[in-house]
Amino acid sequence: MIQDFLIAAPFGIDPGTYQALAVIPNYILVLGAVLLWLAFIVLGIIARRYEIVLGERTNWQFLVFAPTGILLFALIQLYYCGLGGKMMLPKGGVNYVAYGLFFISGILSLVANLKFYGVTRGK
Questions:
Q1: Distances, alpha carbon 23 to alpha carbons 14, 47, 85, in Å
Q2: Residue 88 CA from chain centroid, whole number
Q3: C-alpha dihedral over 74, 77, 78, 79, to 10 degrees?
Q4: SS3 of 92, please?
Q5: What's the angle, vertex CA 119, arms to CA 115 and CA 123, rounded to 5?
């Protein structure tokens, strides 16, 4: 089973070192991105319940859909680095798309959270 996750080590380094420096950090990065995405989804659910209970508009849909780029970044990273065994995203467009999605999603999530914060403060 563990053999499925071990990738042949390029560059002449031993497989254990490659596993510790490339494969495991890529899986941890994907796990962290998915957990971050889930945290924003939970915040959107909280905003929806806030809207239902207090009757104030919270734009909870924006809170739920804004972090989608984080999930897409995690899927791209998993495909190329986790399953493909690469140390970094390939150059020439894929890396710009992945990091661009992550950046735009981060900005949109920040704006959505600031709007929700304004609603909860009463502004």
A1: 13, 37, 7
A2: 16
A3: 120
A4: coil
A5: 100
